[in-house]
Queue: 2 jobs
Job 1
Amino acid sequence: MANLTRDFFIGLSNNKCLNKNAQKWGFRLGADKFVAGTDIASVTRTIKEMNAKGISCTVDNLGEFVSDRSEAEASKQKILKMLNQIHKEELDCHVSVKLTQLGLDINRKLCIQNMKEILNQAEEFNIFVNIDMEDYAHFQATLDVLKILLEEYRNVGTVIQAYLRCAGEVLDQLEDVRIRIVKGAYKESEEVAYQSKSEIDQNYLKLAKKRLLGNAYTSIATHDHHIINELKDFIQKNHIPHDKFEFQMLYGFRQEMQYELAKAGYHFTTYMPFGNDWFGYYMRRLAERPQNINLVVKDAFYTKDNQLKKEPILTGALAFSLWMLWKSKRKSSTKSS
Ligand SMILES: Cc1cc2nc3c(=O)[nH]c(=O)nc-3n(C[C@H](O)[C@H](O)[C@H](O)COP(=O)(O)OP(=O)(O)OC[C@H]3O[C@@H](n4cnc5c(N)ncnc54)[C@H](O)[C@@H]3O)c2cc1C
């Protein structure tokens, strides 16, 4: 059942038409709980609040799978503006980017050129740039681009997804590079990715422990308290210095735990997405935690002070369809299991 629900929301996250339309709607369906703002000014306010609590941030200008040069150019310009803002406001923050947002699907040279402009600016301001890892269809291309960038830059790193069977092998090739370890957010085939939670968790722990014993900086990105607790024990037993790693979580998830880890003296970074292109990101979050569908329904029909909305037509209709689809998938999977 969990897999069916996950597949359903991941399917929605890839729907080009819904993604495009959602950009015009503004935040709907409760997305504002997980997206830190629509523009640079609003995300800056949230970063400052997190920084004041001892939490660093990595900011992501939402958007992916761009097929138009002008869109790739606009994304690059926005990232450059964000880098300026981080520098000017002295924010404790780095940036996360997606290569498909910067033209990877249009022309690899264009994407590399865009990344170089971003990295030059970031280098000047001493800011790290993380390349998020997207679906497996872009995995090798992402690593190839990273390899080219590493010939010139040290302020760049990427993400390794523990669900990939080849994750260990690739991680060994990147032993000197700053890496974020995640479980993996996309739907991948059994051929390339572990499917069961226990296999993914086991691989996650194996990869994280190996990295923690190595030399390069590692970001442990998960909301899974079992994994976090086991790694905290491992770190203590092996006397691993706190400046070699950090914990990371997504904005809006397990907020109390984020503060507790920072308070306990661990480096902590919150992943902070912003912008209008929120649909795909938000649907992947629903895929991971379908309980959040309650937020969607509440947001569609009620105002912030719990009054029934007068005109919930667009959001209500969409939320209702999502809800019905989710329920029917749930019913059919219960019947068949
Ligand atoms: C900072 C960051 C960056 C990421 N970057 C990428 C990327 O570049 N590429 C990519 O593919 N994926 C990325 N991801 C997403 C990642 O791959 C996972 O899909 C996502 O983090 C969910 O997996 P999890 O490790 O949190 O554990 P899950 O398996 O989702 O959760 C494990 C357990 O943790 C508990 N839990 C989880 N969330 C909550 C909650 N909100 N409240 C209470 N309990 C909870 C539950 O007990 C749950 O069973 C990123 C994730 C983070 C945190």
Job 2
Amino acid sequence: MKNSMPSGTAKLMLTLVSILCSLGMFGQPIMSDLLNPVQVKAEERVENMKGKSIMVFTPHPDDEAFSMAGTLALLARNGNHIQVVIYTNDNRGSLDLTMTRERLAEIRRAEEEKACLAVGIPKSNIHWLGYEDGDLEYADPKVLRGDVARLIKKYRPDVVFSPDPGSAWVQWHKTDHRMAANITNDAFIAAEWHLYYPQHLLDEQLQPFKVKEVYFFYSQQPNYEIDITSVFDQKMKAALAHVSQYEPSLSKYTPALDPKTAEAVTTRFTQLHLCNQGKCLERFRRVE
Ligand SMILES: [Zn+2]
């Protein structure tokens, strides 16, 4: 198709489209309306927990930053022990024709470590399962479920965060997100019953463990919201650490964040998290 737009305008459009894609505006729910909020006593609310074991499962490095970095900052501030488990190495998300998968995996790892540090999580608490970007559904599900169940038995989380496997949003969703959401959920059962992966007990003395409290991010049926106003700047640092996923770095990689992009993303996040209405929020579907 003939491009009749002036190049400057075309470039700006591409930048905005990329930012919108990054923020999930083409299907992925960063922030849906709160439906039937669950009533939880203040002392039992997850954002008030202290010294607990928390596990986060994310398809790619950045999904947890976009959807729940504020909550992570609050949990870290409260002295909780947070483990971030990342299914893929995100080594295919570049439009730069000179980029290689190996180099991109290294870039994505460094960006994720920076993002986690911005919310108070050291890189030693990041667990890379190492699957190739876009290939998670082609991995052996039984092996993958075992990987996750093993980590659950090891870290025995009081609370788990994971993408929502619910029906509405998966109509759009891409392979790694579908698979990560389903596998995390399937691993809850596998971690609870020792005969699913008996070698965990026999070889490593890992006792079975029952996950009791789960918060799903990217939910279209959120019933729980967390006020992240006090840590919103940390959330933005985490989100903006993923430089390679925004233009102009997406098309021609540069490690420097473009100030215009930073401003546009911050403005969009401010809207998405409803900061313009008084306080910044992150929303989840809570189940127990
Ligand atoms: Zn993702």
